[in-house]
Amino acid sequence: MRFTVSLKIAFAVAAAAALSMVNGASASTISWQTNTQLGSCESGYTCDNTSRTFMGSDGITSVTATAWSQNNSNVIGTASLGFYSNGLGVTNSANDGSHTVDNQGYTDFVAFYFNQTVDLKSVFLNTYGDTDITAWIGTTPNEPVFTGQSFADLDLAYGTGFNNTGGNSNRDAQFGGNSEVGNLLIVSAMVNDLDGNYDNFKIKALYAESSITPDNDIPGPATLLVFGPAVFAMGVIRRRARRKQQAEQADAANDAQEEVVA
Fold it and tell me: Which of 95, 146, 170, 205 could form a disulfide with 124 if both were Cys (CB 3.0 to 4.6 A apart)?
């Protein structure tokens, strides 16, 4: 019984230590610089006014950006994706606004499709007017095509778009403390904005954390430090138990021999 209890204690200590180390491992932030000064279009991908792909700072997670606009009839169509020193902008078929994501006439948005699921944190906006946005975060098996849809369809597919308001200044638009996990981010000039100010900005950077836990959260040497003492203790306990069992068997044999002699 003592042997079993001791083993359980040793395993519990090792497991608690390992769990503490795993929980202590912090996820690192991945950034994508979507402007000509701090980032560049990833080679091997389409890189023009229809689509641009950027590699994240982790060297693993890529994101592909495409441009869209909802017209005055609430129908979404393709738009041209502009690539500028202050970030990505949109030019739609009505040529309203000025190479930015705006809601002056048609309402522009940029869709970001990631090659793996991420926990989205924020998007950096360079202002050319107001910086109110509506955003959707969701999961999709393939890069989506929005032609012929509407913002109401986006609500049905990815959950109701949420608004994030800001003034006429460059800002990092935070998505909140909740885990906003998905492989699709849609950033639009605010839909049905009623403050009287047109939204007008370019998208300079994205920030997220990987939602995949690395296999090497506990390095090999650290694993030995965690489990080594427990394994050693188990060996000691086993040896003691074995010696005790051998002694008890020897005593029993002696008692039996004495009974035969008597």
Answer: 205
Q: Identify the CA nearest to 192 among candidates 168, 158, 160.
A: 160
pLDDT for 36 equals 78
pLDDT of res. 1: 52
Q: What angle do CA 184, 142, 149 make, to 5 degrees?
A: 75
Q: Where are the beta strands (DSSP E) in the chain?
A: 29-33, 52-55, 62-70, 76-78, 80-84, 87-91, 101-102, 107-127, 133-138, 162-164, 171-174, 181-189, 200-210
DSSP letter at 142 equals S
Strands 101-102 vs 200-210: parallel, antiparallel or unpaired: antiparallel
- Please identify which residue in the block is written with the tokens 């041209």: 80
Closest CA to 56 of 71, 70, 74, 38: 38
Average pLDDT (91-107) is 88
Q: What is the pLDDT of residue 194?
A: 76
pLDDT tens readout for residues 119-161: 999 999 999 989 999 999 999 999 999 999 999 999 999 999 9
DSSP assignments along 29-86, one per residue: EEEEE-STTT--PPTTS--SSS-EEEE-TTSS-EEEEEEEEE-TTS-EEE-EEEEETT
User: In this model, does residue 182 exceed pLDDT 70?
Assistant: yes
